Amino acid sequence: MIPPEPPRSPQLGFLYLPPFRVQGYSIAGEETFVQIPELDVCFDLGRARRAMLTSNHVALSHGHMDHAAGLAYYFSQRHFQGMRTGTVLCHPRMEKPLQDLMQAWIDVESQHTPYKIMGMDPDGEEFEMKNHYFLRAFETDHTVPSLGYVVIERRSKLKPELVGLPQEKLKALKESGQEITNIKEVPLVAYMGDTGPGSHFRREDVQAAKIVITECTFLDPTHRDRARVGKHLHLDDLIKELGSLSAEAVVVTHLSRRLHLGQARDRLDQAVPAEHRGRMHLLMDGRTNKQRYQQQLAEAEAEEARMD
Question: How far apart are CA 308 and CA 218, in angstroms?
């Protein structure tokens, strides 16, 4: 009798939320990473799959292995493939243990793999990823030290009273030390890895983010106590926050592996108020997300044809 083929790797979750792709894999206790290629950032890194290696920045929510196991491999593979050294951001209490982990691999491999690990002050410290784009850290509530993050875009706009002035005049004002622009902060994406409910959902930058990516491990009405003990979110907790979130899309990650996706879809349909249901997405709901993407493609092609 011919033996069966080995199991195939699970397909990554994917959502196109213009102008960003949100892609990755997230099952509670197994693996979590969520990458946004357009922002050059990956939230958590799971086992450091090939897809996420291209991100120059990794924002670790906490140190549990399903979120952080791929740390050494991330640095090693980027070095092996000739990429520049990536930067891993983390809670300050994780910084030294993670650096010690990398040092241990030097002894194991008898070679030095370059790495960059930086602790982030949970009281709003920022890291500039590229011009005008910043990653801001904040405290979340889990069983171990944990962070959430907001990607902020800072846009500069000429002050209204200076509009219409010739360039020579504007240049002279700037050279004299006068500020000629106003800076506007635009929260683009908020991410919360493992966390229970708390005041972090009521931060202004989280509430104003265009996309909110958050764990919601438990959906079953009978699992509220399990969520509380493990400091995870229950669907009831998330529903309470939806009214204050202005996000165009709320992406749910970290579902329990015991929950079938069909059951998860049904539970959202039953529990989430109708006015919020359209912006709720399950990252790992491949069937629904593929249908949505195919519709986006068809609409884009129709628009291109109309423009021609």
Answer: 48
